Amino acid sequence: MKDFKNAIIECVPNFSEGCNMDIIKQITNEIEQVEGVKLLDVDPGKATNRTVVTFVGNPVAVVEAACRAIKKAGELIDMNHHKGEHPRMGATDVCPLIPVSGITMEETVEFAKLLGKRVADETGIPVYLYEYAAQADYRKNLADIRSGEYEGLAGKIIKPEWKPDYGNAVFNSRSGATVIGARDFLIAYNINLNTTSTRRANSVAFDIREKGRQKKDEKGKTVKNEKGEVIWEPGLLKCVKAIGWYIEEYGIAQVSVNLTNQEITPLHVLFDTACQRANARGMRVTGSELVGLVPLNALLEAGKYFLCKQQRSIGVSDVELIKIAVKSLGLDELTPFDPQKKIIEYCILNNKSKKLIDLSICSFAEETASESPAPGGGSIAAYCGALAAALGTMVANLSSHKKGWDSRWEEFSNHAVVGQKLMKELLSLVDEDTNAFNMIMAAFGLPKGNDAEKAARTVAIQTATINAIKIPFRTMELAFNSFNLLKAMAETGNPNSVSDAGVGALCARAAVKGAYLNVKINAQDLKNHLEVMPIVEKAEEMSQNADALEKEIWNIVLGKMK
Fold first, then answer.
1. Is 188 exposed, middle or buried (0-12, 13-18, 19+ CB in 10 A)?
2. Spatial separation of the C-alpha atoms in residues 195 and 512, rounded to whole Å
């Protein structure tokens, strides 16, 4: 089964209470008590008598937090007395799950179904599934499910076509019903124009939004079909909702956009299209702003897009890609843009304990030199491998914009992308190797009193040891693969940086040989284990071949220096 511990989903439950903040606080307390989630936003509305809560985390933790919150809302909110302007049908009206990273929509749907079943089983609240989780087409649209609202639910729920997906078809007068589903991430985004005209901002909005504009005849009258329905001329971009407005605070007009699927219409495509349409209408886009949070990948892809337009290598760090995206999109025009507060993944990481790779070079060396046995040789081998890939990537990036080599920028960009990928995974293995060692120590610390405890302890030790073999073996594989990059850079890269490729080869060899020692020492007591034997054999082969590859690159480098 797939491990979802590093996957991230967003959950945005809407609760039918916007006036009593004590009730809202009790609900959000349930969310904050779950390890693995982070509460990002609580937005109450008095007129609507409704609060929108946003939190993120790994899928298992999010389902747990959502279930607890829905349960608490059912205890505290009595729909018999609820009044509000916003359509609603339950104490927890709707609860969507949104995939952010490391998880597909199909997998998110399964977690939505799991949440729906748990809510119905544990609270007695009927649950309907919507959007991607819907069991029938007529139930995809939230408005259709919610039609009739709470007041019409008693009569609606007993109809066969509106039987709940989970729970009994019985009206729950206190809690109503809850709609749970999986939907795409929505990016709220405003594009700044050098005009104060709402009408002109609307003209750009109508150009780009999927719905487009009403068709007009030569006299400017709305065109209708034979049924008397308005005919619409579709806009340029799918999954885009947009309208123009004037913001007095900034003294400018904006195109306000809801981007409902960044996979279909990426953020950078939206921005560039708006720029083109504004220019065509005598205006200019001066920048933009993100309302709320954005997935990391949206800005990384934007950074790559704008670098490619400049014919620059995209094999650079995430920090550099984000910097290019922010400047190219003008996200810092109106207010400073802080990636740590605006990018979902970074908000979550800020809530986690620091890793070895977050330490400074000096602190990492001092930590290694301390009395603690970890980090040790395995982490150092992974770090050597990361440095090898980093040096190869550096040569590729330098080569991509070498004077006179402009036509080869994409060739070296592709090499740099490979190097960045190798480097990132090797850096993650710096901590993974130490974690593997700690798992072994924890297994040895298990009780060994009776026979059952002894057996469980033996299994735990063996499982942890096999993991401690696989981690350095993966370091070997990645560091070994970096030889291809380093050889290519030694042969075809910027000649002024050939020595860097040579140093990279030395680091790669150290990584392979060092990780091999960890594979070998951890495999001592499992030499005949069916899973371990082929790993050790492959490790020995890579260790031997690393010597020849390092020597080959060494000779290429020396040959270039004659």
1. middle
2. 60
224/285 same-domain check: yes
Cα–Cα dist 501/503, whole Å: 6
Out of 86, 332, 431, 529, the active site residue is: 86
Question: Which of 124, 148, 182 delimits the end of a domain?
Answer: 182
86 is catalytic: yes
Contact 209, 256 (CB under 8 A): no
Q: In whole angstroms, what is the distance from residue 87 CA to residue 91 CA?
A: 12
Strand partners of residue 15:
51, 92
Q: Please write the tens of the pLDDT for every residue from 219-251.
A: 888 888 888 888 889 999 999 989 998 988 889
User: CB under 8 Å, gap of 24 or more: what pairs does 351-356 form?
Assistant: 351/38, 355/430, 355/431, 356/430, 356/431, 356/434
Q: Evaluate whether residue 110 is within a structural domain.
A: yes
Sheet of 252-259: strands edge to edge? 240-247, 252-259, 187-193, 285-291
203 & 242 share domain: yes
H-helix segments, 195-258? 198-208
In which residue are the tokens 């069991």 written?
A: 135
Q: Tell me which residue range forms the domain holding 126.
A: 8-182
Residue 43 is a catalytic residue: no
Is the omega angle on the peptide bond into residue 160 within 30 degrees of 0, that is, cis?
A: no
Q: Are residues 296 and 360 in the same domain?
A: no
What is d(CA 324, CA 320) in angstroms, rounded to the nearest whole number?
A: 6
Separation CA 31–CA 73 (nearest Å)? 12
Q: What is the pLDDT of residues 333-359, one digit of tens each?
A: 998 999 988 888 888 776 555 788 888
Catalytic residue among 93, 184, 433, 500: 433
User: Are 502 and 557 spatial neighbours (Cβ–Cβ below 8 Å)?
Assistant: yes
Integer Cα distance of 333 and 246 in angstroms: 16
